[in-house]
Write a structure and sequence with these properties.
Blueprint lengths: L2 H32 L2 H17 L1 H10 L2 H20 L5 H30 L4 H32 L2 H21 L11 E2 L5 E2 L7 H6 L5 H15 L2 H12 L4 H22 L8 H17 L7 H29 L5 H30 L1 H28 L28
Antiparallel strand pairs: 1-2
Length: 426
Amino acid sequence: MSRDVRLIVGAVGISALGDFLLWVPLTLHLEATTGSGLAVAGLMIALFAPIVVLAPIAGLVVDRRDAREVLIVSSLAQALIAAALALALDSTAAIIALAALLGTGFALAQPAEFALVPTIAGERSSAQLNRINGYVETSRYIGMTAGPLLGGALAATGGTQVAVMVNAATFVGVALAAFALRARRAPVSMAAEGPGGAQDRRPDRARDGFKYLFGDRVLVIVVGAAFVSLLFMSATITAEVFYLKQDLAVGDTLYGLLFSAWTVGMVVGAIAISRRVKGGALAVGALIAIGVQGLGVGAPAAVLAVGFAGAMWFVGGLGHGTKNVLVRTLIQERVPERLHGRAFAAYNGVRNGAELFAIAAGGVLVAAIGARTTLAIAGAMPVLTALVGLAVYRRRAAGGSSGPTAEPEEPEPLIEPAPAGGALVE
């Protein structure tokens, strides 16, 4: 593993750890000081909504600047915001406002991290990108797992202020890792040479990331399937605790072990399975992984057995980790480099928007039809979505209108991507 790969992998892991470390103590603090579910919901909206709302603008900023510089500046800004947050814990309004600023930093930092991977990979082969994306995703999962544990421990022993200051330190760590990167991605000129040597001077637009994702004949199928599946699967965030505690009657220790089965599956999928998928099969592999993820979510509702639930959640985690890596690689390969920031910001916005809606809907479904039925629906719909996606993809491929190795078609005339020998983004 090269030096830059280690740095970007470490930066993503530290970033995820800091994000999840922050949410736990702040949630506990608001619950204790306000006793209001609305305050806790406001915190979550403040943190996640900017990723959705600002996706087009954040992606355009990443594409017009060196992604490394964007990551450094946004991380240092988040460190200052987190430090201010540690001093403003007496005011719920200040917490929500500063959390929204942190969310704005997330909206910029995440596409910048994504945009650095192809540059660091050096060659643009699927195998190389899959390998590095697997490391990146695994590091993120480790951070997501360790963050809540560390955040809870810090909140319990040192108080919320200490936990938030540690979070500020993680942003400094990400900035230092980005500063140490050798990889550079200069912004692509807004005027690129078009066919026949003519200059196409149409300006880049913030919405081009969305236009490309849903205009490309392959990405629209995969990203569309991922979006629909998330609308249902994320409802399990609300339903699982009731299913495990009420339907399976598990204790707290076993509760944690069952959840870890999903995380372990994600790591195995990201590291071991995704790299076995060849470049020409990325789209098919991602759709199959979506179906496997849904199966892992819904199958436990059919059999009330703790062992079966743990095994199926491991299987679902395999699909989850594999899907995340393959979709990242597919976007990096099919989208022109000049649009990488906007494309991933768009994907991130779509994904987080689906999850926010599903979390809210999950609470309604659990109250209306129960946790077990909610899990069954949340798992069955992604499986159905994956099957429909595979059918559409195969029909288009058979008709010669698409294929995983075909050049992506832009939904409307845009500036041609920079030459392969030019500055790289990721």
